[in-house]
UniProtKB/TrEMBL annotation:
Belongs to the D-isomer specific 2-hydroxyacid dehydrogenase family. The gene is ddh. Gene3D superfamilies: NAD(P)-binding Rossmann-like Domain. Keywords: NAD, Oxidoreductase. This is D-2-hydroxyacid dehydrogenase. Residues 37-49 have a biased composition (Acidic residues).
Length: 330
């Protein structure tokens, strides 16, 4: 039974904490939306009644036996929580061993970001192909200028390699396939995947990227994937290729990528994630013309809180029923 569920104030980065609170607690109502989704605060009657409140300080965590959060803080370990839900799919910031020792279950939000991230990556590719990022930059200076005749291209017939074919990768692949792109992918098990013409294993990654105009990185950060895209993999990409990273900063060797970009060995990059976030003001990535920087926002959507509410509501029901949690990590 989850008697008191806390919504940590750190989710403010993605949506108002009160929006999620209201979606999960019918007593508050749905003040942030139009009430037309499954996450609109309506009780199903079988998830159990529980108090839902917004919390911030360690003192406010007292009495909570479950927590929905963006950030991780050491105070969570001593708060007496039985369950923590991460509003992101990535959970590399959470200490698995310590949580397991304290019998704290950890769940994540995998499975809900495929459309948002897929459309973001499609936007990156369209911007580079149609030179939209350059027009935006020149427009700020009032500069009316056509690109070189051979710069713009269309996505149809271009090649894309998707590194990681989970929910995010499949969302990217589906949208690229709809644009008549040639899609290959990389995953641990080389079994067929919809919208992907050929699947490679991580050991074959240099072959996978060798003919790709775009390489989209969408794999979780683990000990196996840290530094997966390094100097050798970047060197294997064509000179006119673009790297797109919507996974975690640690998956790509940033120093190696920067070196390739600064000497024009690659055409450009779109980077949503970095080893240090927020990206420091003095980072060279800000100054490169053919680099698009977004603030770890590829998955954001106005319905984000509703999707989180659906997962949390289902696991709250499962806690009452004594059933295994969905999206359980620890």
């Amino acid at each position: 039974m989850v008697s008191t569920l806390g919504i940590h104030e750190s989710v403010e980065l993605l949506f108002p904490p009160t929006a999620l609170r209201d979606a999960l607690d019918p007593a508050h109502g749905d003040s942030a939306g139009d009430g037309d989704s499954a996450g609109d605060g309506e009780s199903t009657g079988d998830e159990g009644s529980s108090e839902v409140r917004v919390v911030g300080s360690s003192a406010e965590l007292e009495g909570c036996d479950a927590l929905v959060t963006f950030a991780y803080e050491e105070a969570f370990l001593s708060a007496g929580l039985s369950w923590i839900h991460s509003v992101q799919a990535g959970v590399d910031r959470f200490p698995f061993d310590e949580l397991e020792e304290r019998d704290v279950r950890l769940t994540n939000s995998t499975g809900i970001h495929g459309d948002a991230v897929g459309e973001t990556v499609l936007g990156y590719m369209t911007s580079f192909a149609r030179r939209l990022h350059r027009y935006r930059d020149r427009g700020r200076d009032g500069e009316w200028k056509h690109p070189e005749w051979d710069e713009p291209f269309t996505l149809s017939g271009e090649s894309l390699c998707v590194v990681g074919l989970g929910t995010l990768g499949r969302g990217i692949a589906a949208r690229a396939d709809a644009c008549a792109m040639d899609v290959v992918g990389v995953r641990r098990t080389p079994t067929p995947v919809d919208h992907v013409g050929e699947v490679y294993t991580p050991e074959e990654i240099e072959r996978a990227v060798a003919d790709a105009r775009f390489v989209a990185v969408a794999t979780p950060l683990t000990e196996e994937t840290r530094g997966l895209i390094g100097a050798d993999e970047l060197a294997a990409m064509p000179d006119d290729a673009y790297l797109l990273n919507v996974s975690r900063g640690g998956v790509v060797d940033e120093a190696a990528l920067l070196a390739e970009l600064e000497r024009d060995r690659l055409a450009g990059a779109a980077l949503d994630v970095f080893e240090t976030e927020p990206l420091p003001e003095d980072s060279p990535f800000w100054e490169l013309d053919d680099v698009i920087v977004t603030p770890h926002a590829a998955a954001t959507t106005r319905d984000y809180y509703r999707r989180i509410a659906d997962i949390v509501r289902e696991n709250r029901r499962r806690a009452v029923a004594g059933e295994p949690f969905v999206n359980r990590v620890v």
